[in-house]
Specification:
heterodimer, A: alpha+beta, MetI-like fold, 19 helices, 16 strands, B: alpha/beta, 7-stranded mixed β-sheet, 4-stranded antiparallel β-sheet, 12 helices, 11 strands, globular
Chain lengths: 772, 302
């Protein structure tokens, strides 16, 4: 058997089976736990036995979560033994081994109970009922409330003649197909003017002969008013979040505009800015002239060779160059004309902005009064849901004697006695909220839409950044660089980069992108060098570049000849010159005295802090090796016959790469991108340094210019899972949501990968041809 | 519509040589023995070539791959408007010589050349020559069909595309003209936008020929164009070579003696990087001046 290799087959099969089972277990567990979180559980009314008398004692409402055997300790064990000898031990309170069982109940009501979960030994339970009136309330804050409806109080303001006496009456009202007993009384209005009064309608849960279950009236009336109250709350939130936020932002912008104008005025007074502007403009003009002349010269040469390139290649390229330069010119400040900040212009700008601010402040006050009006209406709609001891859900923990507002309830679920259809409805509604809503109650409740959005957007940004970089680097390594010791060292370095722990990238991202680059963008160089010295250094850089260009021409061997030793030496010299020139250029940019940041007028940091752009860049760096290695392999796999065919047709190297090599390598490049995306989407550690937040105030995309706000922080599913599991104020309650969020993260990664794989399959089919 | 092959029967005729004794000592050859001993030798170039006008002219052309010399002092003229075949045993440098004409050997690391080569009296290996422009003046077809992974239409007009031609009408006319010349138009005219990789091997090779002639090359270089094809496809390609030879100068490398006899006007025999005999195909096959040529074309040596 050994000789035929069968033990090896068994071993390999075993290893494969173990791996498959492990993966299936992982996915199965996440899917099971994640999918059942939102299914409504029944609510038990648990009555505990009074140990002294065996009579029913204290009672509470709760949702059964799980059961387990436990070690009761000596005292309780003795008590259980005594109960058993008396024959008073309830059935099923011990497991098969005789160990006592206990059950975990989710009791909610955190304001009153303090602990939202409670373990109850089964032998202490006298009875368990499932009352149909029990309701689970999901609230905006303070977790869930478990109780039964007792009363609904609706007040509205009415105007009555001054001398009308206060009315108090009771009548039967037909509402929702059920007759409701309504108590109405008028009370003195808060204004105290005599003609404004508050009229209160009270729906009370009390058994009547025609309706033995009195709570239903309150429940129906509550459901009817809950829709209205929720819509009103949504309006309040939208007003305070969007309308007020927008006015606030515009006031901020106007303030910054004034500061900026003042800075501009200072600079204009000093005159150096104007000189720099003229310098840049002359550079632009000379380059544009050069591009046009070069195009002419090339065109003439090409025409002399009777060759069709000029019309189609040279002129469009020259046009592109000129267009780019014009764009640069449009962006650069013109050193002549009005844009220079004179004292008169400064006064004008300040006046303009200040009048705008005054208008905005009036607008702000209007929005504020509208919100106040809506809130006072909101405060007049209250509901009483009582727990087993008769205490109702308070409006807040500090005022326990005031019942909560109707609008504080997000969703009311009545699981007992409902049909499966209702349960499915609740389940789907909870999923809907989870996928499309904002998180609430310190992330432990509500939806994860901003989190999904942040994750997907970061992954997209990351692949947009990493793929072009990776392709260009791999093409250079494989197609242009001379294969030798240097390229081998580079490849080893790239592969090692893939093995660096991701937290190191996080540290680097924070130190380099957020602090160094971000700060530079915000405020310009910290210690700019002196102007004269800067120009000398710039001249030095220009000499280095010119020298490198000249030597590069000399370092090329004659056509058809292999390079000699002196060519190799010259090549090294050229590389050293280029590196020196690049280093000098970076130094010149980093210490330029002519730039002082795009946001220097703003008080706080804009790019100089954690944000989605820096997170994407950091993860792009992290995943770059994956893309480079995959692209290199794909490029190397393009057959030699294809390249030779292309060269034989008179294609240049770049044309061959662009038209033959890259399309042929595209499926392999896509594989690299898929791997990079999967790794990037699942990474958490570096994100904690460079941009992921527990709660991001705004999405990184909005309808306001520039639409994509790359400097904003964002929320990420991986970080959200960590936050739910370990940082939530009530991690026991958040645990089911951890599973669901994990399921979602898996689903998103699978979705992203699947779409990339589909695109790759289509590319492959295209490359392979229909037949063969 | 099978056309009459040129020089019919040339290869069938057998000449018994008086000195060839089976099992005896190998016969003595004048040029090849000198080549084997690495001594200078003078190739036998027929004077019938002097009357021809040269498109490509090689003067003492030598080529090294690193330190190995692959071509030795090749001097020959390729006649305008004729089909010239390069024959010889494996490794004799005929493909290298072909690829030297459009400087495809430049892609190999460590290639050096010496001596001259002219294309219509323009130097090929001068320092100022733009290799890209040079290759645009030549068309090449490879041993294995190598259509690009794109549509049939894009394949045919690839040389024009890389030359910067974008006018749709010009491209369409060129594609139709070349596919007709390559006798492929009727088979593919309805599926020009489909992938070229879906064609059969023979169709792919004809597509490659269409691609090679789309830019009106001065010389068409064929590197064993039939060696990867079945006999029927080979026959069609040979007919095609015959047809397009009316308009183009063709330089073809082949292993197949009958093929050389059928399609070419002139034939050059090479051996170990050197030219052995060069003359009209009829002369080479029926009336060679060297005994080694005689033995090679009749299959007794090589």
């Amino acid at each position: 058997m050994t000789a035929r290799g069968e033990p090896a087959v068994w071993l390999m099969g075993l290893a494969l089976t173990v791996s498959l089972v492990a993966i299936a277990l992982l996915v199965g567990l996440v899917a099971y736990e994640g999918a059942r979180t939102f299914w409504p559980r029944p609510i038990h009314l648990v009555t505990l036995a009074d140990r002294a008398t065996d009579a029913p004692g204290a009672a509470f409402l709760g949702l059964p979560m799980k059961e387990e055997a436990y070690d009761p300790g000596d005292e309780a064990a003795a008590e259980i033994e005594a109960l058993r000898q008396r024959g008073a031990l309830p059935e099923g309170s011990l497991d098969a081994d005789g160990r006592p069982l206990r059950r975990q109940y989710r009791v909610g009501n955190r304001e009153l109970t303090g602990v939202p979960f409670r373990w109850v030994p089964l032998y202490e339970i006298a009875s368990v009922e499932t009352p149909p009136s029990a309701v689970l309330l999901e609230r905006w804050a303070w977790g869930v409330w478990v109780g039964t409806p007792r009363a609904l109080l609706l007040q509205d303001e009415i105007e009555v003649p001054k001398d009308q006496p206060i009315v108090e009456e009771e009548w039967i009202e037909a509402a929702g197909g059920r007759s409701v007993r309504v108590t109405r009384r008028e009370i003195e209005g808060p204004a105290g003017e005599g003609m404004r009064r508050v009229r209160e309608r009270r729906y009370l849960a009390e058994a009547t002969p025609e309706d033995p279950e009195g709570w239903r009236r309150v429940w129906d009336a509550f459901l009817a008013s809950h829709g209205v109250a929720s819509a009103r709350l949504a309006q309040i939130r939208s007003l305070s979040r969007y309308d007020m936020g927008r006015v606030n932002d515009r006031i901020n912008d106007a303030t910054i505009e004034i500061l900026r104008a003042k800075q501009e005025a200072l600079k204009a007074a000093d005159g150096s800015r104007r000189r720099a502007g003229w310098g840049l403009w002359s550079v632009i003009a000379v380059s544009a002239f050069g591009a046009v002349c070069g195009a002419f010269a090339l065109g003439r040469k090409a025409r002399a060779l009777e060759f069709s390139r000029p019309k189609f290649v040279v002129w469009p390229r020259a046009a592109w160059c000129v267009a780019a330069l014009l764009l640069l010119a449009a962006w650069t400040e013109r050193p002549w004309g009005e844009s220079v900040m004179t004292p008169q212009r400064l006064a004008e700008v300040i006046g303009e902005q200040e009048s705008m601010i005054a208008g905005l402040q009036r607008e702000y006050a209007e929005v504020e009064s509208r919100i106040r009006e809506l809130e006072s209406q909101d405060a007049r709609e209250r509901v009483e849901f009582v727990q087993a001891d008769g205490r109702f859900a308070p409006v807040s923990q500090s005022s326990l004697d005031e019942p909560m507002r109707v609008s504080q309830v997000v969703r009311a679920v009545k699981p007992n006695g409902g049909s499966t259809g209702e349960a499915v409805g609740v389940y789907l509604a909870r999923w809907g909220e989870f996928l499309s809503g904002d998180p609430r109650d310190a992330n432990t409740e509500g939806g994860v839409f901003p989190v999904i959005f942040g994750t997907v957007m970061m992954t997209m940004l990351l692949s947009i950044i990493v793929v072009p970089f990776g392709i260009v680097a791999a093409l250079y390594l494989r197609e242009y660089a001379r294969q030798g010791a240097v390229t081998s060292i580079l490849r080893i370095a790239i592969n090692n980069l893939a093995g660096v722990p991701s937290i190191v990238f996080g540290m680097f991202g924070l130190a380099f992108f957020c602090v160094t680059v971000g700060k530079y963008i915000d405020r310009g160089p910290e210690a700019p060098i002196e102007r004269g010295g800067w120009w000398w250094l710039a001249a030095g850089a220009a000499i280095l570049v010119a020298g490198a260009l000249v030597m590069a021409v000399m370092a090329r061997p004659a056509p058809g000849c292999s390079p000699q030793r002196r060519h190799a030496m010259m090549g090294w010299a050229v590389s050293i010159l280029w590196v020196a020139a690049a280093a000098l250029a970076v130094y010149l940019v980093a210490r330029t005295p002519y730039f002082d940041g795009f946001f220097s007028a703003k008080p706080g940091p804009t790019f100089g802090t954690r944000g989605i752009l820096w997170a994407s860049l950091t993860l792009a760096l992290l995943t770059l090796p994956v893309v480079i290695v995959a692209t290199e392999e794909a490029v190397a796999a393009v057959p030699r016959s294809m390249r030779e065919g292309s060269y034989g047709c008179g294609a240049s190297k770049w044309q061959t790469i662009r038209r033959i090599v890259l399309p042929g390598a595209m499926p392999g490049i896509m594989t690299g991108m898929i791997l990079a995306m999967a790794r990037g989407a699942g990474e958490v550690a570096p994100l904690m340094f460079v941009g992921a937040m527990k709660q991001a105030p705004k999405l990184p995309v909005s309808l306001d210019w520039p639409f994509l706000h790359a400097e904003r922080s964002f929320m990420h599913l991986g970080f959200h899972i960590y936050d739910l599991g370990f940082q939530a104020p009530d991690s026991e309650a958040a645990r089911p949501l951890v599973w669901t969020t994990t399921l979602l993260l898996l689903a998103i990664v699978v979705f992203l990968n699947l779409s990339a794989i589909l695109i790759r399959a289509r590319l492959r089919a295209k490359n392979r041809g229909s037949a063969v | 519509m099978i056309t009459e092959p040129k020089n019919q029967g040339a290869s069938i005729k057998r000449i018994t040589m008086p000195g060839s004794v089976v099992g005896g000592a190998p016969p003595a050859y004048r040029v090849i023995d000198a080549i084997r001993r690495n001594e200078p030798s003078t190739p036998e170039v027929h004077d019938t070539l002097d009357r021809e006008e040269a498109v490509v002219e090689m003067k003492n052309f030598c080529l090294w791959y690193g330190s190995t010399q692959a071509l030795f002092e090749i001097s020959m003229k390729i006649s305008r408007g004729k089909v010239t075949a390069l024959i010889g045993p494996s490794g004799c440098g005929k493909s290298t010589l072909l690829r030297s004409v459009n400087r495809l050997n430049d892609l190999v690391d460590g290639v050096r050349v010496r001596g001259g080569m002219l294309l219509n009296s323009d130097p090929i290996y001068a320092p100022h020559v733009d290799v890209i422009d040079l290759r645009k003046r030549l068309g090449m077809v490879f041993q294995k069909p190598n259509p690009f992974p794109m549509s049939i239409f894009e394949n045919v007009i690839y040389p024009l595309r890389v030359d910067g031609e974008r006018r749709r009408g010009v491209l369409k006319d060129a594609a139709e003209r070349c596919l007709k010349s390559a006798a492929l138009w009727d088979e593919v005219k309805d599926r020009l936008d489909e992938s070229a990789l879906g064609l059969s091997g023979g169709q792919q090779q004809r597509l490659c020929i269409a691609r090679a002639i789309v830019a009106e090359p001065e010389v068409l270089l064929l590197d064993e164009p039939c060696s990867a094809l079945d006999p029927i496809a080979t026959l069609r390609i040979e007919e095609l070579i015959h047809e397009i030879s009316e308009r183009y100068t063709v330089l073809i490398v082949t292993h197949n003696m009958q093929q050389a006899a059928r399609v070419s006007d002139f034939t050059a025999l090479m051996y170990l990087g050197r030219l052995v005999e060069y003359g009209r195909t009829a002369d080479i096959f029926q009336n060679p001046r060297l005994r080694e040529t005689e033995d090679y074309v009749t299959g007794r040596f090589g």
